[in-house]
Amino acid sequence: MTSAVDRRPTAAPSPVPPPASPVRTPPRRLKDRLAGAGFLAPAVLLVAALLLTPFAVTVYRSFFGDGRVSSFTWFTNYGLFLSDPVLAKSIENTLMWVVGTVALPLVLGLGIAVMTNQSGWSRVARLLVVLPYAISGSAVAVVWNFILTTDGAANQALQALGLGSFAQGWLLEWPGNTLVMIVANTWQSTGVAVILFLVGLQTIPPETLEAASLDGADGLRKFWYVVMPQLRTVSVIVVGSSLVNGLKSFDLIWVLTQGGPGRNSETLAVSMYQETFLALRPGAGAAVAVVLTVIVLLASWLYLRRQLTPKGA
Amino acid sequence: MRSTGGTTEQSPHPIRRRTVLAGLGAGAAAALAGGCARGDSTASIPGTTSLANDNATWDAGYVAAGRELKKLTGYALRPLSNPNPTAYTQVTQISLQTTKATDLIKWQSGYNLKQLARTGSLSDLTGLWDAYERKGWVTRSLRDAMSYRGAVYGMPLYQSYYVLFYNTELFDKHGLRAPETWEELLHNAEVLKKSGVTPFVATQSGNWPAYEWFEELVSKVDPVFYADLIAGRARYTDPQAHKAMQIWQDFMKKGWMTPADFDQNNGPAALKTGKVGMFLHGSWQSQGLAAAGMKPGEGFDAFVLPPVDSSTKRSVITEAGVLAVPEKAVSHDAAMANAGNWLNPSVQRVWTDFLQDGSANPQAVTSNPVLARLRKRALREHWTELPRYGQSGPPNLMQGNTDDLGAFMTQAMSSEATLRSMASRASKEWAAWNKDES
């Protein structure tokens, strides 16, 4: 882990490793190479069979039409992103999910971790926040379904409080339905962000905090200039995993709205399922899958490349 | 822990470690091979035919009907259930291409069956159907929904009516009776609404229920138009469709319908407790109402929606599940024998007793008194039987239009925009279907 403290340049390592001594590392014999390949084979075969081959088949399928006789149609299925308003809205919803699932767990997770990073009652509070993370996504969705349907707990509570005019079909109107689902997702996923930030907070050397205090840094300044830089790696992990989770959101949406009403709360992952298995358009579904995979890989690569590369490399 | 630093150090027990690794490898390979091996659930078992289906709660009914079949053909039924309909569809379509297809499959009628039949994976049952027709064990009106290019590929598993269930006690309390005319229906709804009861169940939750009110209202405005519409001969933007949507909109505006996210699984309980007045659903829902503690004819009753204009011919929306025989069925002859005897009144009696729903055989007695009365009347008065909307067109068209109706129910789309969108999808999807057919 790099921190603000240990990142000071010391004796810079030579960019070129010293030449290896021919005595210490003799040329690898064929037998060794074979043995190495043997050890690698199970993992390589599994990844190839279960990940790469299906992906290649999906890419291949996305260039074929969905008629009875499936013919090569070049990029027609990808053109649906421009012509089909459902897929355009799906991208819009996916963007909302990404923003929501990155920003909310990051801010809330950090806030809760900082506030509960003490002993005593704050531990109980922390446990309560972390607990939903232990529940499966579908179970969370079922619970929120009880709350959010028009006859559900949210509207009943509003009516009981005399706020009946605020009662509404939470899952029925866009963009409200997407927003409440993001809130439900945040309720669950904040827990893991809290855990990660707590781990980060507890690995901060107390000397750095003491030094900051001695230099006269008060609470907020100390937090911003001393604590935050040391949480950088944890933040990278939280944002990175939230980014991917946001892009692949499926279970909560599927249980709560099935992408509806009228396909207005679909994300790309739901559209992929809808097109392939419900609309029986495997070509279109494959195109959505490929686009989603490319976006996830690209976003992860761009983000992690910027964040995890050692400075100066 | 032993040091790993010494490169020349020999392991004192090289054989043992290799043996362990080899053993683990062999075990993993065996497990993998076992996993890849074909399952034996569809293998031939003497005296039975396997039946793949998507509803495990019907297993007992299939077994009971199978006992009757065995007396006639020598083969009982062995249900293989996959309770997730979407997974069931996928698994079945794939298994039909293997050499281990189940002997019989449950499928949906209409275009879902046609789509499967045109892959060539189903057996031609025309001879069996003709024999049924000669005996008067099946009505000709069902044949279209079971056929593709003139040949029959499915036998009706059951025949349900779309009805409005009501709580007899609630109706008595408010001095209401099952409506015979449209005006009486409106009166009932007004009385119930004034008493704090939501008159009708209507929902888009679960997707497909979104078309239930559409098919009902369009067919009750004009049954001939409905038949033309689903056959692609009429347009969604025609005045009859507009009229149906206006009625629907009016019902929603008056607060006569449940919220669009109402869970139909709660329908029986809502009817029993008097929260809702009338529950539009397939007659197979009788089983659910009975499970909620309401007896047919005593606790609950049902009626078919009357026509909007009293001069319009009465009609009823029907739904028929299908039994089909895969071309590559493991016990093909046995499956054909059972398909050829499924509609035998003795088999149907046991089956409908279990299902508490209607049989496609007009001679079979339905033990559910509510349904028996409605079917008798439908036959006597020659009501027009119309197929359910969801299976009455190319699957992509039906799926897309159902989504549009869901949007209409949540006010996300106006009735005009909904109909325009449905019309444009209809022309596109019918063209695609016809192109595939040519």
UniProtKB/TrEMBL annotation, chain A:
Tell me yes or no: is Transport among this UniProt entry's keywords: yes
Q: Which UniProt keywords apply?
A: Cell membrane, Membrane, Transmembrane, Transmembrane helix, Transport
Q: Which Pfam families does the entry link to? A: BPD_transp_1
Q: Where is the composition biased (Pro residues)?
A: 12-25
Q: Does the keyword Cell membrane apply?
A: yes
Family to which the UniProt record says this protein belongs: Belongs to the binding-protein-dependent transport system permease family.
Protein name, per record: Sugar ABC transporter permease
Provide the organism lineage as a comma list.
Answer: Bacteria, Bacillati, Actinomycetota, Actinomycetes, Kitasatosporales
